[in-house]
Amino acid sequence: MTANTIEFEDNRALAEIVGPHSRNLAVIERAFGIEIHHRGNILTLQGEDDAVGRGMETLTTLREREAKGRPIEQGDVEGAIRFANEPKRDVSAPAAPPNPTGVEIHTRKRIIEPRSPRQAAYIDALLNDTLTFGIGPAGTGKSYLAVAAGVAAFLEKRVDRIILSRPAVEAGERLGFLPGDLKEKVDPYLRPLYDALHDTLGGEQTAKFLESGVFEVAPLAFMRGRTLANAFVVLDEAQNCTRMQMKMFLTRLGENSQMAVTGDPTQVDLPRGETSGLQEAVDIIEGIADTSVIRFTDTDVVRHPMVSRIVKAYDKLDAQRGERHDRR
């Protein structure tokens, strides 16, 4: 057992880190199995050496975040815990800085920082590589970060337009029975992509760019025969692409463009007997220069903590049934 202390000169900063009713401290205590005592402007951590070291690293991360003037939400606390939990050096060494890679996405409404080491690698790939695959379970930020990276590229004038697409596969519902024309039928299915645009750019600006055609949100079938140049292109729910659809999409890549492909191989909604093109594309393309494949796991889920537990429960059931899912 060991004890370590961290002192704060700014009580306002301390209050932000501690959270309402010491909520953030309780989250850190549960994560590492330690006790944190708050007295005056000093926090004292008690527990096993390794756990205390990781708790100190988490608090240091939050302290650095607060010093930048950025709010500390529950997701930021959980993100700092994920970074501290990564296997690494002797925790008796000086704590690593928050977001050690320094990658972040700048949009009009917010600065988006990674909340797990894999998110950091994913953001780095989205900012620097021509083609990036983000593969893994729901709630890991695959789609949101890809759209945000596209918004950042557009605002920095690295591309002239953003194109967001999904294969229009019916996930247990019949689109044909929905009222309205094709756009009205498909728009609700594409709503998560619209939501990401609104969250990073704002509703008014998003509507303006959508109306002008600078931003395009469309079913995958609309990509056939086109060359997508000077654009940031996102294909979401790619596990529902057939082999031919995936090849068609990837070969649309034009000059000065970037592509991000996201999907969860465990949630394929294709008709029985139809092969998903996502895993095949990864197998073919992984290792090619200027491409990246980031594989997320349940430990990267950044939605409500319950989502991570749900993913684990389904994985356990699949394993019991003898199903094999690639979660490398």
Structure write-up:
The chain is of the alpha/beta class and 328 residues long. 41% of the residues lie in helices and 16% in strands. Helix 2 packs parallel to helix 4, helix 3 (49-67) crosses helix 4 and helix 5 (117-128) runs parallel beside helix 6 (142-155). 39% of the residues are buried.
Share of residues in helices: 40-55%
User: What is the percentage of strand-forming residues?
Assistant: 15-25%
Low-confidence stretches: 89-98, 170-175
SS-based class: alpha/beta
Alpha carbon gap, first and last residue: 35 Å
- The Cα radius of gyration reads 22 Å
Instruction: Tell me the strand order in the biggest sheet.
Output: 8-7-9-10-6-11
Shape: globular
Total helices: the number is: 12
Mean pLDDT, all residues: 85
**Main sheet properties:** 6 strands, parallel
Instruction: Report the count of strand segments.
Output: 11
Order of helices and strands: EHHEEHHEEHEHEHHHEEHEHEH
Which keywords apply here?
single chain; 328 residues; alpha/beta; 6-stranded parallel β-sheet; 3-stranded antiparallel β-sheet; 12 helices
